[in-house]
Structures are given as structure tokens and as C-alpha cells.
Fold:
Amino acid sequence: MAPCALRAAHGADAVSDVVLISPGENIQSIVDENSPGTSYLLVSDVRRMQRIEPKDGDSFTGEVGAVMSGAERIGPFVRRNGLWLAGAHRATARPTGNCARNQHGEKTDICTYLEDLFLDSKLLRRVSGPHELEPGAWFFDY
Structure:
């Protein structure tokens, strides 16, 4: 991608070269194509599951509404036996530490899994098995 000239922020007179990163583009491949010390501008969009390894001196700026998210969309959901089910592509499949005992005094590792589930930006409560499912809760079957 070719750089474009943009006026510096806050009304400064200096002009600098900035590489625009448009929605849908792979950020790392653009970084790989450019020299260290490049300035990048992320055009407004939600970018999911992208990992970036910048080069020395690189800088990244986002327009209003530019979001880098580690969240993955899941779905479609299907209703089966009174439950809503969806497949998911990524999961840790192992706990990352130790938990205190739960509200029943039982030792559990459910709080150490890395995945969370949000519905309409609301965090749902993770449960350790399908028998605990209720409105506002979810279970991941590894």
C-alpha cells in the first residue's frame, strides 16, 4: 500500500507520510511491506483477531471508531432441546491458574479459562456444566 500525505494533528504545518489501513486488510502484512519507523492510520472499523508485531519506531493511530478486538464472533446459533448452541473455533481447553472455592465451597478451575461470552455487549456468566445452564449463563464443551 502506498503512503499518502496527511497534515499533522492539532493544526501543525508539518506534513508526514502515513500508511492508511483500510477495513478488511491484514495489518501485519502491511507492516511487513513497510520500513521501520512507519506511521499507520487505521480507518474506522472493528478488526478482530489480528496480531501485530511492529517494527522499531512504528506508530499506529486509529480514526474515531477504529477498534482492535480479540473477540471472535460465534454463530449461527441453533435451538436444540431448549438450549441455544453455536460452534466456536478457538478455545484454551485448559485452565491458566487456580481459583478460590466457589459459592458452594467446591474447588473449581472454571474461573481460569480465558474465554468469556458477551451477548449484546453484556458479559454472560460461565458455568462448569450443562446442568447449571440458566438465562444469562453459558457453558463451553471442550
In short: Residues 72-142 form one domain.
